[in-house]
Backbone:
């Protein structure tokens, strides 16, 4: 990176650090009101936001497909939903100041572990403008300063959304630099952000595998993210067949494009002849395609053969990989080889098998007799999420307000000194 | 790094990952027994360990000072203490499987957040051989695989200690690769370890500022650490003078070389004329030197003047920087400028001032009417610590067994699918 990017970034991170300190001392009510103010501005400036979005759409390369264009497009309904989303974060319980643990030592010192903000968050996302509003709302609510970097194609929209957040903050007397935006689409600035170990406490990338993997590869700042959700549903031999059918159909087909969608079905060999033929028939009818190993093909010969990489592929589409396994250990070995540590599910009526499975995978989220599509902050009761993490450090699974906090220890004494 | 270092490291991390998976499925009793076994081996092989340590000492460069040589030296008493330390970790409560949160959603799904190991830990330390034994014990107890890298000067000692840990593990049928050691003093291997984002989940450096800063600068794997403990004790105008005197003397002089020692005394101007003269006299008598700002010099003219960098210096010695401030905000501003986010203390009888201070610094640990020397895992009741962290992500303050865990979500259903 050149000196000028580094200078721009230092200006941003210095302001962010200052804002974070000030936000951490603001009241819950101030932060909530700032969000309600930002939502009002989003609605009041709807036509300016639509104009900005129009500029982004006009500038879009003809090579971008319809799905990309759709993700970038704002409508009055989508802006209303964005404003409502910001308001929804305002009514969530304050994640700061929670006493996470409390004890007294024999010498009378009183210890408290108390939730505090993380500090400065770098949020890198793609073309969907509402992600910027959601992320800014969650960060403000949790007392964190945030530096937003949306997709280069959505810069005008992102700037309008940023402006609304800043107005909400200033109306409450909060530091406007609590939410900043990278001032240009310059990729080198993103590189500088990813390296800013002193200025940024955590980077949260949200988008496709390409974006997340690039961030993970280049960042020196710690990253909370998941690159892919290669989720498995395993039907154990003691499964209720009807329950298994419903779960697998839902886990794959409810919304095949979300990260919690099941990509691979594992079936115990004992139950596979009963489960697979009707299940494949039903899912085929619903438009699902398949990639099957030899043992599954032996049961349903019409199934197309899986290619070597298929079990390592996150389809994000109505395509299901199928493998027949011997038992729980066989399923765990398959998942150890191909899983991405996101969400893994077992369907069984056998509690021992379930516990063995739940304790045996690397999944951030493990389920027993439920659809992997439930891996979502809303379904967890978190109210909103900024992303889903599959790393081991700090937060795993859906990242909501609580996960955007750290803690400090407060020790209250009466003059104790150490012997 | 060359291809060969990378290949060596991949071998180590692959074995570590495998061991971590197997350890995460082992029983608490197995892990505790492995530690007791390792302690027995440490005692049984005491003479071999003393011989190995002798080799290290013979190889030591003449430039190393006595303090360095002392840290490296093992004696029968120190080996006994090391074995007892490993046994002490064995009797701590199991940090795994704790249910950190539990709730049920309206659709009947039961959620549990359960403590699981972090995975693979890279432990980088300096010359004190017992750090390797302590770290290995804490990692095994918490179900984590660890790759140890001690100081190049202590390689023979480290290998003997490693051997004892491995024997303890194998006696229990646990994977011996749960504890590994970098096979040579090759610095390039350390570089490879710091870059191994897929193979290592967290790096914990323990040693001087030079080591920690080098690790923080070079690592792409997340780091749990503190580079320095530039701790402040602030005496507020409403302090009990006698309590303040006792706390300051203890916070500075009990053990000036630990990271929780106070380096800078901040005093409210109103109380400074009453506090400083007798305090400086007493501490001078106890061998303490001083670096004072102009306002403190105006009260005690004999105090030597602070140089520009003095307030940014972690003395780790009987030297105290002194500054007079106007009030709590003045103290907070000083700490914001010079603090390292480690431990900050206020002495006051005024609860409002105390709360303002506790909520206003970036300290991982903040204290009211207590000596900063209490910042230590043992004093917190953690039983043992692998280090102290000042970052925002994952763990802050003393890092004990609990802090060496992550969590997963377990969701138990009865066939629920998402609508």
Residues:
């Amino acid at each position: 990176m050149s000196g000028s990017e580094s200078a721009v970034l230092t200006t941003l991170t210095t302001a962010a650090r200052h804002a974070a300190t000030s936000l951490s001392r603001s009241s819950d009510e101030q932060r909530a009101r700032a969000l309600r103010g930002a939502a009002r501005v989003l609605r009041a400036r709807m036509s300016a936001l639509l104009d900005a979005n129009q500029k982004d759409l006009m500038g879009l390369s003809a090579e971008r497909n319809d799905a990309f264009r759709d993700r970038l497009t704002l409508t009055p309904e989508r802006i209303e939903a964005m404003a409502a989303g910001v308001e929804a974060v305002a009514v969530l319980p304050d994640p700061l100041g929670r006493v996470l643990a409390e004890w007294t030592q024999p010498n009378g010192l009183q210890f408290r572990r108390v939730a505090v903000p993380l500090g400065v968050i770098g949020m890198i996302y793609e073309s969907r403008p509402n992600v910027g509003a959601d992320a800014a709302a969650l960060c403000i609510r949790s007392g964190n300063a945030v530096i937003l970097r949306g997709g280069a194609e959505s810069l005008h929209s992102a700037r309008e959304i940023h402006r609304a957040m800043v107005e909400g903050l200033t109306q409450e007397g909060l530091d406007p630099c609590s939410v900043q935006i990278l001032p240009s689409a310059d990729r080198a600035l993103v590189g500088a952000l990813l390296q800013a170990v002193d200025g940024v406490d955590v980077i949260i990338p949200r988008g496709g595998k390409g974006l997340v993997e690039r961030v993970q590869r280049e960042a020196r700042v710690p990253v909370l993210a998941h690159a892919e959700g290669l989720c498995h549903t395993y039907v154990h031999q003691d499964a209720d067949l009807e329950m298994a059918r419903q779960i697998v159909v839902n886990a794959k087909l409810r919304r095949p494009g979300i990260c919690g969608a099941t990509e691979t079905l594992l079936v115990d060999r004992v139950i596979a002849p009963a489960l697979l033929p009707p299940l494949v028939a039903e899912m085929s009818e619903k438009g699902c395609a398949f990639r099957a190993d030899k043992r599954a093909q032996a049961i349903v010969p019409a199934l197309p053969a899986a290619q070597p990489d298929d079990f390592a592929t996150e389809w994000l589409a109505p395509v299901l990989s199928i493998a027949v396994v011997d038992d729980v250990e066989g399923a765990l070995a398959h998942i150890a080889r191909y899983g991405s540590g996101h969400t893994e599910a077992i369907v069984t009526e056998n509690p021992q098998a379930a516990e063995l499975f739940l304790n045996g995978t690397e999944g951030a989220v493990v389920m027993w007799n439920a659809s992997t599509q439930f891996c979502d902050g809303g379904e967890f009761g978190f109210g909103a999420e900024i992303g889903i993490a599959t790393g081991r450090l700090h937060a795993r699974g859906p990242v909501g307000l609580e996960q955007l906090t750290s803690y400090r220890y407060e020790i209250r004494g009466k003059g104790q000194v150490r012997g």
Q: What stands out?
A: Chain B has a mean pLDDT of 95. The longest strand of chain B covers residues 405-416.
